[in-house]
């Protein structure tokens, strides 16, 4: 028994935030500076009442329509999100009902960020290989922009909202290979929203601004960019080497590399660090931004549209947690 990515679709919210609009709010920046630094020209922002669950449903509906998939075949739903609609129940359970899927369908959420797609694929592959399920609807959805302070120009330039839907089946366009997965929880506070959950339920209202006028608040998303960069520089090369070894390949035998689309500077740094030529390195974030767990499936969808998803494709996610994951896709 083998497991395959059968189909991918994605959904982006209607509202678009351009660099031109951001520069009006932060006149000390320029459109060119934002574009050159992060490689993002615009990002999509979820509506005030729009949730990760709403977006995941729209991505799934698009998947069913785009590929003429009979939703009756879906026998498991896995949603990767850190923007759950509720503390409980699991948003995946709500989605099962909203999509009208069979009640014999299993459903649960996984709370992961930038490595979440790879972890989701690993779970889905495990279900297929063990015979637990034959057609898993793997969803990713985030509304990180709701966590960002309005004055946080750094994070507002990077993150966008979005959702994806992937059908993992016993057949399809890309066989899912062996995985390299890892975690170092010592970095948990380097990318975090501290309040709102059980550890610290009440808001702390402790907003301060540093010498660069950057807001710091336990009630909003905090990202230590240097710590994330240092972690990525150390973890990604080891992860790539481990993934290639587990799949009995060398980097020279990889036809396309798709990393988590964090920002232009970081992924180009990693490309050069690993000595990967531009022609085999896929980037797609200029008009969508960093959509967390959705960046890789969005990029894969685009690679399919550009007829670039062939042969051996290495995908790798890394970030919040610290958490990382990679696998090899053997594409037709």
Automatic annotation (TrEMBL):
GO terms for molecular function: 3-oxoacyl-[acyl-carrier-protein] synthase activity. GO terms for biological process: fatty acid biosynthetic process; secondary metabolite biosynthetic process. Pfam families: ACP_syn_III, ACP_syn_III_C. Residues 108-185 form the Beta-ketoacyl-[acyl-carrier-protein] synthase III N-terminal domain. Keywords: Acyltransferase, Transferase. It comes from the Bacteria. InterPro entries: ACP_syn_III_C, ACP_syn_III_N, Thiolase-like. The keyword Magnesium does not apply. SUPFAM superfamilies: Thiolase-like (SSF53901). The keyword Acyltransferase applies. This is Ketoacyl-ACP synthase III.
